[in-house]
Amino acid sequence: MADMTVKGAALAAALAGNFADLPIYDRRAECASRDEIRALQLEKLKAQVAWTYERVAWYRARMDELGVAPADIQTLDDVRRLPFTDKSVLRDTFPYGLFAVPMEQVVELHASSGTTGKPIVVGYNAHDMDVWSDCIARMVQMAGVVPGDRAQMAFGYGMFTGGFGLHYGLQKLGCTMIPAGSGNTERHIAMIEDYGTTVLVATPSYALHVCEVGEKMGYDWEKSTLRVGLFGGEPCPPALKAEIESRMHIVCTDNYGLTEVMGPGVSGECLAARDMQHIAEDHFLWEVVDPATGEPVGEGEVGELVLTPLDKQAIPVLRYRTHDLTRVVCEPCRCGRTTARMQKVRSRSDDMLIIRGTNVFPSQVEDVLSGIEGVTPHYRIVVDTQDGLDRMAVHVELKPESFSDSFEAMDAFRRSIEEKLKGVLLVGCKVRLVEPGGIERTTGKAKHVEDLRK
Ligand code: DLL
Fold first, then answer.
1. Which atom of ligand 1 lies nearest, measured to the CA of 255?
2. Gap from CA of 233 to ligand 1 centroid (Å)
3. 234 lines ligand 1 (CB under 6 A)
4. How far is Cα of residue 365 from the mean position of the Cα atoms in its chain?
């Protein structure tokens, strides 16, 4: 962590390595032995598969095709006999084809817009809402939030699962919610000041924007009541987190989830293992597979995360292919929890760009830029074709202090970034230096790639 003032005794103790006294929301679930966890998962998996088979025609048909019945699930490894599900299934059955309860029992709908085509919609009954808020309550507690915190929401309260999902769970823990919603950054800063906000819930890219706008307004983040940044919804690279922590004088943790299996609350970062997130294993069975073959990778190896929610009644989903790349470890954590931890997701199997035959991940660009003095974490990759050949440009935003009127100096700086990128990406690209503030900010998930070839 960068040089900073830590606000709050619990956070200070945790960051000094003293985890023993930190509260754990649900010790029975979060600190069970590995055998207990696996036994509970198996019991729930059997019930979930039976629930799904009996109520959802799509799964019944697929399982019949594969020759597998609910009674065949006798061990956790038997999960591999079940069909995979991916986004296309939810699209093809839009809106209610996978629902397993009558609509009168569905208390809330959420949707994910996706980048192309139809959205997908998910529903929750009262039981699902309880599970969801419970998962969030435990996750925010492991992130350093305590009852009585004042949590200001900067996620949108629309169909996106981020806003309401975090809202219910934070309230369940005992926080005061400040439902500001997304956008209107100056107002967010005024509200932090006026209401004594202690927790900001946002995407990390938007939190950085809040930080920058506050600095421009002359707001003193060090003296602010804000102490925790609760991030999620998009990757939070270590350099971005460190920058926000040192400039806003807060501790930032990030949590992971996706609409199709619930929303936020699938896994979250504790204060001990800062690059990993604890999976709520009593509610989610995880697998890590080779994205190309669907076969399991070796223990602790990187692959695509596949999730089977174990407690989902309104819209059960079996073996959901997340496309998120990670690895999972099961050793107990210094925080005292025994639940498996997934490495924070930096890239997806489907965000890989192929530039003139070379595979490029946006996270590689991010890592190169984070090692260069004088540039901000805001960037954009633009890909198009010229005369049938792929071209990649990287728009890099300068910090005010590195902006200069000297063409020669700027050109040398630009070329040095091009060389560094080429050394890592193994394919040439053009760098365009953008003035401070020149890369568009979003209130939600940042858009880092514009692929004009599609
Ligand atoms: O983004 C759920 C969420 C909201 C999680 C707020 C945490 C906080 P979707 O819009 O369906 O749901 O997008 C899910 O976003 O498959 C990942 O690729 C990415 N993602 C979500 N959280 C993280 C994270 C919500 N902490 C997709 N780190 C997922 C990296 C994340 N990627």
1. 26
2. 3
3. yes
4. 19
Ligand 1 centroid from CA 171, angstroms: 21
Ligand 1 pocket, residue 162 CB under 6 Å: yes
Q: Which CATH architecture has domain 353-451?
A: 2-Layer Sandwich (3.30)
Q: Domain ranges in the chain?
A: 9-34+125-345, 353-451
Q: What is the pLDDT of residues 119-157, one digit of tens each?
A: 899 999 999 999 999 999 999 999 999 999 999 999 999
Number of residues that this document lists for the chain: 454
Burial tier of 352 (Cβ tally within 10 Å: 0-12, 13-18, 19+): middle
pLDDT at residue 19 in the model:
82
416 Cα: distance to centroid of ligand 1 (angstroms): 33
Give the residue, by CA position, lying nearest to ligand 1 atom 27: 258
Cβ-contact 52, 318 below 8 angstroms: yes
Output the CATH code of domain 9-34+125-345. Answer: 3.40.50.12780
* 259 CA from centroid of ligand 1 (Å): 8
| Residue-wise burial string across 285-324, b where 16 or more C-beta atoms lie within 10 A, e elsewhere | bbbbbebeeeeebeeeebbbbbbbbbbbbbbbbbbbbbbb
